[in-house]
Design goal:
By secondary structure, the chain is of the alpha/beta class. The protein has a domain at 3-125: 2-Layer Sandwich (Nucleotidyltransferase, domain 5), CATH 3.30.420.40. The chain has 5 helices and 6 strands.
């Protein structure tokens, strides 16, 4: 693989919808996509990137702010070269494209891709986690979700009100 065959991809991560931008080695736009945070859409993203790279995942360099999670794990599993950057550094790179520094998902994906292309040393290459780390992370996530659900259930009231359980005890006069 020569430097001219590399593809630089920026992924602006979001909770539900990720913005993706792909550039060639000279900075020309190869394509943009919005990807839902679902297994099927992430698989489709990987197929699209492999198609751009003529089947060579090692020629695809991907930049993202978040160094962990389902998106990163999926990309690493497919043997793409994933790199993370500190959000503050991204803010500085964003100034190259917009003096106001305004946040825009499409622009951020472009900034991520182009910055990796021109300033790769500012990014940290990510490696796949050991299987036990991935399993521990998943168990921790499930624990947090169950704890939040338990809290929600404990805060509900049987009579449909909100807040702590309320118990009405009628006042009775003292005997005698």
């Amino acid at each position: 693989m020569t430097d001219d065959e590399r593809i630089f991809v920026g992924v602006d991560w979001a909770t539900e919808l990720h913005q993706v931008c792909a550039l060639d080695a000279s900075g020309d736009l190869l394509g943009e996509r919005q990807v839902k945070h679902t297994g099927a859409d992430l698989a489709e993203l990987c197929r699209w990137l492999l198609e751009l790279a003529s089947g060579d995942p090692q020629s695809v360099l991907i930049s993202i702010e978040i160094p962990h999670g389902a998106v990163v794990d999926t990309l690493l599993e497919q043997r793409f070269r994933v790199h993370a950057i500190n959000p503050k550094q991204l803010d500085r790179f964003r100034d190259r494209f917009s003096p106001s520094g305004a946040k825009d998902d499409r622009r951020d994906a472009l900034v991520l891709a182009d910055s990796l292309r021109t300033d790769g040393c500012a990014f940290r290459a990510l490696e796949p986690d050991a299987a036990w780390v991935i399993e521990l992370r998943e168990q921790s996530r499930m624990h947090d979700e169950l704890a939040a659900e338990r809290t929600k259930l404990l805060r509900g009231t049987p009579n449909g009100g909100s807040g702590a359980f309320s118990l009405h005890v009628p006042w009775r006069d003292a005997p005698g």
